[in-house]
UniProtKB/TrEMBL annotation, chain A:
Any Pfam family: AAA_16
Region (Disordered): 1-23
Compositional bias annotation for Polar residues: 1-10
InterPro entries reported in the protein's UniProt record: AAA_16 (IPR041664), ORC4 (IPR016527), ORC4_C (IPR032705), P-loop_NTPase (IPR027417)
GO CC terms, sorted: nuclear origin of replication recognition complex
Domain Orc1-like AAA ATPase: from-to ranges: 79-233
PANTHER family xref list: ORIGIN RECOGNITION COMPLEX SUBUNIT 4
Keywords: DNA replication, DNA-binding, Nucleus
Domain Origin recognition complex subunit 4 C-terminal stretches: 286-486
Protein name as it appears in the record: Origin recognition complex subunit 4
Sample GO molecular function, one term: DNA replication origin binding
GO biological process, one term: DNA replication initiation
Family statement: Belongs to the ORC4 family.
UniProtKB/TrEMBL annotation, chain B:
Region of interest called Disordered, as start-end residue ranges on this chain: 354-376
Pfam families given in the database record: ORC5_C (PF14630)
Organism: Pleurotus eryngii (Boletus of the steppes)
Annotated GO CC locations: nuclear origin of replication recognition complex
Protein name as it appears in the record: Origin recognition complex subunit 5 C-terminal domain-containing protein
Lineage: superkingdom: Eukaryota
Amino acid sequence: MPSVQQPERSQTPEKSPRLPSPKRVNIRATNSASSIAHYVGPCLNMQKRAILRALQSLPDTRADEGDEDEEQPRNGIVMQQLDDLLKATVTRGEGNSCLLLGPRGSGKSRIVERCLANVPQKPIIIRLSGWTECNDRLAMREIAHQLFQQTGTAYSIDENDDTDAAGEDNPFLDTIETEQNQLLLPPPSHLPALISTLPTLSRPTIVIIDSFDLFALHPRQALLYCLLDTVQSCRAGSGRSALAVVGITSRLDTTNLLEKRVKSRFSGRTLRTAHPRVLNAWTGLVQEVLSTPLPGNEDNEEHVETWQSSWKTNIDAFISDDAVETLLREVFAVSKDIRLLRNLLMGLVLQLTEDSPYPSASHLSAVISAQRLRLQHGELHALPYPSLCLLIACMHSRTAGHDTFTFEMLHGRFTRQVRTSTAAPVQVNGGSVGMVRCPRPVMMGAFEEFIASRIFVCVMPATAIVSKEFIKYRCTVEFDDLRKAVARTGHAHLKRWMNKPQ
Amino acid sequence: MDTPGYHEFANTINTLLTSPPPFLYIRDSITPRITSHVLNSILASAENLRYAHIDAIACFTPRLIFDSVLNALARWFPRWSDGCTNWSEEDASDEAYNTSLGSFMRGLRDVRSDATSAGKGKAKAIEDAQMVILIENADRLTAMPNLMVPLTRLAELSQLDTSLSVIFLSRVRWEDIRPPLGASPDPFVVDVQPLTKDDATQFLEANYLRICAENPCDAYDPSFLPLYKQFVSAVVSINFPFTHDPNELAYVIAAQWPHFIGAALREASDEDALPDEPTRMRLLRSFTASMTTAFESLYPRDTHAADWVEGLSTDTNAPSSSLPRMHKYILLASYIASSNPPKTDLRMFGRGLDERGKKKKRKGGGGARQGAGKVAKVPQRLIGPSSFPLDRLVAILGALVEENEEYRVEVHEGMSIPGEWTDMEVSRVGVLGTISELTRMRLLQRTTAVDKLDGPPVLKCAISYETALEYARELGVPLVDLLWETD
């Protein structure tokens, strides 16, 4: 086996990751289990908490340690560019717009937050998100609110005052209250007016637009047009404050969504973030997080030290374990999302117990199957008898060519099966050896529970005309899953029925 | 405090809550109610933590969700005397927090600053007051698509990052309710392990002690616990295969336990003592049958426990034999019309002039015959009644009446053709009135609109096979012979 530190490796795994992990780890696990010291429990708990805390704010993927062919990491360049852009806006009064584009979990928001923290003067920051502001009206309102919060003055009021002055005095509007109250919504016609007040503010403004693509789907893209138009009309050195618009999106064709008049006002500057390209970034992160030091504690210093040294050796062994690397490589090949890695590490840490306090490859593969490769329906074996009968009946119905079924069809199959299995005149201890009967309402209850947990999905529009036992459903459970589950229950009758051709 | 079977789950959640992930999804397909109780008690006992436990069934609009979450997080209880106002910061503007998502998030930030400042007021500053929002029955949130994605990304959108965590609890898999286009981050998933039989038994025993402590009465006394344990294990061994939900079992047990303990006390030799072992076994055996029947009528909630104890049965599906004879004929005709294909009517009911009273024994093929590779036809009885026009119903009704009713035809002069009298009878206005009456009773269903004028009204049978058989028996009609498809 080549060493882990080697940067580039062929993607073909040397062996299947499902094979048991190397003996090394198993031996260590048993060793540690046989000699559990009294301090292991508390120390393990402290370690778990420390790691979970570290997972809340993951450090940067130091991506790019083993990445020799690229002199500077992608996200670093992006960060530099965005930083320059924002500084230009804040210090020199340039109007800037740019789009931050990259897959999910590649650090777009993180870069923006970092850059905002680096900006020299304190600009006005307006944050909009396509998910919360689902139309321009809401977005306007949100801009007005955030302006009010950060400047202490209500800017849309000018417009309202103008209209008030022009018209008659509105007895229901208390002007003093209006000064502090932002609930007064500027009418849509005042949208350009509110945005055009942005450059008149004393400080430069930075508008962060999350899910930029959703704003492009708003009718007429009015908000984007106004914002970008204001950006374009910013003149450096004119004494007015500048405006920067930073869009964040993961949708690749976002610029194509923009209308022509909007697109021509957009600078077209697109900064692209990326996931780390080599696995080393992940393993480095795993090592860093897992070897989070325990917080200082005077009570049992020596125990903590012993624990930390043994924890460290075990973590090093875990990282250099080939099975672990293969598993990580597989996950990495499918999804490079850092949040997935966080979930995996969280699951890994939660699995540790006093009996096996150190992570191993088998822990990792268990957590991968729990978080990433989730079984379709993992708990089928624990279902009660009527539910299993319904599922088996529905498998037979599928085999017979009826993918959709009604309750009556399943119940018919079940009663027929019960009848045939009890037909044999064999009795043991005075009881029949056939399948257990189940009354129809109980079966109906099981059926309705399946509908509630969406294992049975309705395939026709629900109308009042069809009574509930004749509504057609489709089953989402696969044959293989059910076969395994039935085998696991060890129910002889169900197994026989399951395997019986019908 | 520790719910049986939930030890490991409670450990996991407790560890997670020290620094919770922004979005947690807990899935329990069998006992979500118990899981919700367990979670609630964990959250309530956690330190430095404010939580809101809401039910997506009760909070069915965004406004309800916003209000309940903010009130719970701020530990604010709307009181009637105050006009039931929602929580708001003292020096804040009059802005309502429930108008939009943006204001909701401002509300969250205000709650957070309120929580931290409240902590500073005391001796120890609570720097990191953790906030947790637990949403039960989260699958119902799919009815509010605009809300689903922001809720899953709430920590990030409200800029409360690590101090806010959203927990969804549902019986549905996350994959089934995940918003499209990957708009929500994938949660950290925790699966709740299904309860075993022992867990269920322990749960029920703990339940008994809780009832004894909370509202003691004659039947619930701590001294009966040994007997209760035996009773519970008997009920569980009989009924556990049919449902794994301890709450359902508890309902069945609660219906029977007062009777059982009453019988046991009567059997006991001296007062205030439990009967000896053989008596107990005898008692349990005599109650075995009623354990099954209790489950069968209480689990589907055909009746409620109090009625069941009194032996009342309100079986709504029972055929109402009080209907007049013609009503039953019409219902029977509707059942036949809904079950048989229209093409077979002539073969089932057609008679030559000389064949009156003679049964043509014709049996339908049904789904039995099938060629290779062809999908067998499902019997009509299983896929539900088909609809038929009114004319067909009247025709079949005529055939039924003609064959099964004895008329004194000779009384009426001028009716020489066989069946002419019946023909007149079934086309009377009274029959049509009966049909519309049955439609109002929902024993027949009309599938066309009432105000539709062209074409005959189209109807559908709404009685079950069992009811139809019952009517046929009462009228002496050989129903099985008249159905095209048989088992």
